[in-house]
Write a structure and sequence with these properties.
The protein is of the alpha/beta class. Helices cover about 40% and strands about 20% of the residues. The longest helix is centred in the first third of the chain and has 15 residues.
Length: about 170
């Protein structure tokens, strides 16, 4: 199967998670294209789609939301999965699901939605991001469970079934 993995990630941590999902799909024999949400013009050339986004200030990244606005009908026409990252700390907070995650999952009729803790590195943050981190007293560190991300990627691959050549 041809699978699109499209992940919105401002600082790279969520993109790395998407790459692990893509790796698991490839290991199962699927052909995978990793494309930034802003660069996805059409999804009708893919048999399945995995969407991912970091959550910033309680919202999915604009690039991913825009992709769903552009291609929602096509996304509903094929198996689509969604993952998001955002909670940080030990234990991760916040543990609430942002409203737009639920709305986007409904919009694409996602077959599965997964949340993974994220990573916060103070270096590389712009002024407004540093202010928000200070205001919320967010804990810096890498809280990602990359084994869990890979396991979820294997679950998606299993749900797609055996890889087969496109006709």
């Amino acid at each position: 199967m041809q699978v699109l993995v499209s992940v919105a990630s401002r600082h790279g941590a969520t993109r790395e998670m998407g790459a692990l999902v893509a790796q698991e799909l490839r290991a199962a024999g699927h052909e995978v294209a990793e494309v930034e949400p802003e660069d996805v013009e059409r999804v009708d050339g893919y048999d399945a789609v995995v969407l991912g986004s970091a959550v910033y200030v309680g919202r999915l990244a604009l690039g991913l939301r825009a992709l769903v606005d552009r291609q929602g009908g096509q996304l509903r026409a094929r198996p689509t999965w969604l993952f998001w990252s955002g909670p940080i700390g030990d234990p991760p907070v916040p543990m609430t699901v942002p409203d737009d995650v639920t709305a986007l999952a409904r919009a694409v009729e996602a077959r599965g939605v997964a949340m993974f803790p994220g990573r916060l590195e103070r270096t590389g943050l712009d002024l407004s991001e540093r202010a928000l981190v200070a205001l919320t007293r967010a804990e810096a560190g890498d809280f990602r469970d990359l084994d869990a991300v890979q396991a979820w990627g294997r679950e998606v691959a299993e749900a797609l079934g055996p890889a087969r050549a496109r006709s």
